[in-house]
Every structure is written in structure tokens, then in C-alpha cells.
Amino acid sequence: MPRSSRALVCLSLVAAGYVVTRLGAFVAAPATPKAPRTQLQARGGGEYDISDADIQTFYSSLLTGSGGDPPKGTVLSELVVKFFHGEFTPQGFKRYSGLWKGPPPGSIGKKDISVGVAGLKAQMANPMFVTKGGVGYGVDETQKVADDGKGWVWLAAEMSPGGLALELFKSVPYGKRALLVAKQSNVDELFNAVNWDVALANVEKTFGGPQIKQR
């Protein structure tokens, strides 16, 4: 083979080797992942935590009235009658089904509300049925507790298929509409000075959870 031909072959082989080497480097080089444009926020993050000081503040806000029974004709008085005027048995709550005493007779009045409040006080002092709560907002049901050991008993509302329903808690009712809270060992302290206007306003508020339109 002439010297010029051998030189051309050598140059061709060198060039081909260079291309293969660069191509291999390009293929083998790992792609550098792009940083995500936004980072997901950790769930919870303490945004809806309720401290002991928060509970005390909530309790103190309720002790700004003159006690007694909630006014007739309010959603709160009707809920108290609906869920506490009756008989609590191990099989469940048996709602009163007789004639309302009024006045006027046949409609819910002050006499019926007084019976409902008496039932509420008795159950807050010694609840037969307690809904699990506490721990934090949005936690799994298996993490909730029936009693957080802090000595408070809560009355909270939640929307159900049949409308607003009342439940008793012995742990913070995260994400519910907390209406009342009392010291279980001294519920009279609440009812002797409860401000029913404050309690009624709580119907529209979510406690320990994102604020949502309630009705």
C-alpha cells in the first residue's frame, strides 16, 4: 500500500476512535436531575396544634356570661334539646318523644331547654359515650384517644347526614366545631358563668383545623 494511502487510513482510524470515545462518554455520563421547582410542605407542621394555653383561653372566653340556659329559638338550644333531652342507656341515647312542654305546649320552650341543659351537665360530668379525638388534625383514627388525661370535657358539633350532631370528647376535638369545654371535675364552674352568645358563635368556627364554611 502506498505511504499516502496508509497515512489516510491511520488518520481515518484516529478520527473514528475519537468520535467513538466522545459518543461513549456522552452515553455513559449520568444525567444530572433537575431540582424540583417547589418542595412539598410537611403535613401537619404544627399549624393546627392546640396548646394548654389555647384551651385555657377558649375556656376563659366562655366564662364571660351569667350562666343559665341558652335562649329559646337558637340552633344551640335546639341541639341541646335534641341530643340531651332523653335517656342515656348502655344501648344508646333514647331521645324524648313526648309532648314538648313549651311554652307554648307542643313546641320547644324554656322548660324543655332546661331539661336538655340538665342532661348536658350530667353527661359532661360523667359521660356515657365519648368520641375519640386528640393528637392532632387529620391523624389516622387508630391514633386518636378517648381521654388525653388533661381533665377537660368538650361539647363539639359536626355535620352529619341528618344535620349538625353533638358529641362529647375528653380529648381535643380537632377539626370539629368546639362549642363548650369544662373541667370534668367541676362542670358547674362553666354553667354558672357560661356566655351562650360565645358558645353560639363557636358553631361557625373550626377548632384545631382549617376554617371552612360551616353552613
Low-confidence stretches: 1-45
| Share of residues in strands | 5-15%
Name the assembly state. Answer: single chain
Instruction: Calculate the terminal CA-CA distance, rounded to whole Å.
Output: 96 Å
Q: What is the domain tally? A: 1
Helices and strands: which structural class? alpha+beta
Order of helices and strands: HHHEEHEEEHH
Please tally the helical runs, counting DSSP H or I stretches of 4 or more residues.
Answer: 6
| Number of E-type strands | 5
Could you characterize the architecture of this molecule?
Keywords: Signal. This is DnaJ protein. The chain is of the alpha+beta class. It has one domain. The chain has helices at 3-28, 52-62, 75-84, 110-125, 187-191, 196-201; strands at residues 86-89, 92-95, 152-160, 163-169, 177-183. The strands form 2 sheets. It has a 3-stranded antiparallel sheet. Strands 1-2 form a two-stranded antiparallel sheet. The longest helix is centred in the N-terminal third of the chain and has 26 residues, at 3-28. The N and C termini lie far apart (96 Å).
Protein topology:
Layout: H1 3-28, H2 52-62, H3 75-84, E1 86-89, E2 92-95, H4 110-125, E3 152-160, E4 163-169, E5 177-183, H5 187-191, H6 196-201
Antiparallel strand pairs: 1-2, 3-4, 3-5
Helix pairs in contact: 3-4
Keywords: Signal
Signal peptide: 1-21
Protein name: DnaJ protein
Q: Gist?
A:
The protein is α+β, with helices and mostly antiparallel strands and 215 residues long. 34% of the residues lie in helices and 14% in strands. The model is unreliable at 1-45 (pLDDT under 50).
